[in-house]
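Work through what follows:
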Amino acid sequence: MSHAAPVQMVNKPLAQERHAVRTQRTRDLLLDSMYSLALEKDYADITVQEILNRTGVSRSTFYAHFRTKEDLIIAGYQAIGVPSTKVTEVSGDRRVVLDVSAWLFSATERHAALTTSFFSGPGQSVILAHLENILIIQVREHYRKHGLYQVAEMRGEVAVRCFVGALIGLWLWWVRHDYPATAKQMTESFDALMNNGTWPPENTAAH
């Protein structure tokens, strides 16, 4: 009497984990290639084929992860992670504030040359739109979590858009003027105005 060969059980969680590791490794490889090319030439002149030639990744694999080279850049911002929160005193009350300005300015300062390259060509509008969307989602979710956003009213969304608009406006000025102040100085100045409602910061006010 013959016996059927035992069926090998597939460890699905382990297989999924390995797939996730391979996927992340490919994304990191493509992103690193984009960064190195952006330091050598204008971002607008970089082609997807150049990225593929440098990495050895196939075109089909690239498009399985990203639609365009702009999507690749957005993945770089997302890889930074999410902003942390901090407790601060606002008008005498202790509040939990999303430290999104420090998140953006510090990450930009670490990659200043890359940011300058990305925002010096025609592709900047696409990248900026994606970055704005990332910030809006983060700020909106923070407001909702802490009861500062009412879906049925417009005031919550107005607050989100005003905050993000002010942050991006200041950030763009900083980038386009070749970083005239440190990330720490930019963060402190922005937070003093937007979170505390005071300007200039008290410790720098003229006496």
Remarks:
- The chain is about 60% helix and 5% strand.
- Confidence is low (pLDDT under 50) at residues 197-202.
- Strands lie at 85-90, 93-98.
- Residues 143 and 149 are 5 Å apart (CA to CA).
